[in-house]
Amino acid sequence: MRSSVVVSAAFLAGALLSLALPAPAVAAVSSTGRPTTLSVLSFGAAADGVTDDAEALVAAWRAACRVPRATVLLPAGHRFLVSPVTLQGPCSARLTLQVDGTVLAPPDMDSWPKSRRPLQWLNFKWLDGFTIQGAGTVDGQSTISLQRSTGHWHSSGAKPTLVRFYSSFNVTVRNIRISNSPQCHLKFDSSGGIKVKNVTISSPGDSPNTDGIHLQNTRDVEIRSSSIGCGDDCVSIQTGCSNVHMKLQPWPRNQVRKQPVFGIVVGGLGKDNSLACVSDVVAENINIQNALYGVRIKTWQGGVGSVRNITFSNVRVSNVATPIAIDQFYCDRGGAGCANRSGAVAITGVAYRRVVGTYSFQPARLACSDARPCTGVTMVDVRLSPAAGAGAPGTVAPLCWNTYGEARGTVEPLGVGCLQRSNGYAMPLTQPFNYTC
């Protein structure tokens, strides 16, 4: 009964407020050309952290979507519980979502609409020229769900992405904090012209599959001045991505982790014999601490496509198990699911420049395919030492398997320069290229 009363009250408040903001008034505002701010409080949001404010958010969004240079405001000092919503365009130019308060996902997944469970929480699509910014927090509350239901998020198989953009262009995400996602924190799919700046992403180190920023089929991406601490890849770059440039500082969680965070990852690509194409990625001025991997490229056996022109520059690692890795034998399955296959995604033109710091297991592991060796791999001024000092127990020598290129400058330990020479020519491939990237 209480739930019914709350919904009815919210609906009545929204209806009264819609009368206070008739369509002609919105049109009159838009004709002035001045920025317009629409607070969700004016559309019936309770802002108590308990009542569902999704209807108020959608109502404010729809009104702002019709107004050029409009802002939807979630004001500071308030907590907004929001069930899964889709905020979509096309909208008028220069729409902004200003998050100054705290936006909360439902803490128990049983309260989510069943039809939406496998998808995402805040879903943005078909936008152009959109900005989400503010001094507030977007909190998935997945840690609360875990405490209440002993791993319910993960055992259910339904792990929503927290904030997702689909088919959106010229999007800016800046200044906000995104935390405690059940899966990916911030995802861009089939989008372009993306800017992420001064964003903090955090979740417990033992929360599996909680990628920080996930890119797929997305071009022209700039990620700067951001901090990421999560239970999986800090930045994950998947197929269809190109022209990605990042400068950021993933930061560690201090508690003991069951699954340590990963750093900057290209892949896994080519799963189930699929086509994968990634090109022109630059990751520079990056600090990675207490992670399982630092900078990594991983592909599944049997895939087709290419990874080319990847640069990791000015990377500082601290107590990272394996700072540099290429794995063309990647598989997260056991048994027959990891059977050897002859095909592989081709990897060429990978540069490691000024990668320095400490490792806890292996300084570099470059395991490339017998059918499609890695070519054009360059090591320049790579200086890595055991975290526990020289000759520390538990560390192993670097590996270069079917990896062709050259090492220049200072390379420590010496084994990191184990690249095979190909005299400037790509090694012959055992299979033809039957794909187009």
Q: pLDDT below 50 for ≥5 consecutive residues: which ranges?
A: 1-31, 146-156, 250-260
Largest sheet: spatial strand order: 1-3-6-9-12-15-18-21-23-25-27-29-31
Overall 3D form: elongated
Structural class: mainly beta
Mean pLDDT, all residues = 83
Helical amount = 10-25%
Q: Which range does the strand content fall in?
A: 35-45%
**First-to-last CA distance:** 57 Å
Radius of gyration: 24 Å
Give a count of the beta strands, DSSP E runs of length 2 or more.
31
Number of helices: 5
- What kind of sheet is the major sheet? 13 strands, parallel
Family: Belongs to the glycosyl hydrolase 28 family.
Pfam families: Glyco_hydro_28
Protein name: Polygalacturonase
GO molecular function, one term: hydrolase activity, hydrolyzing O-glycosyl compounds
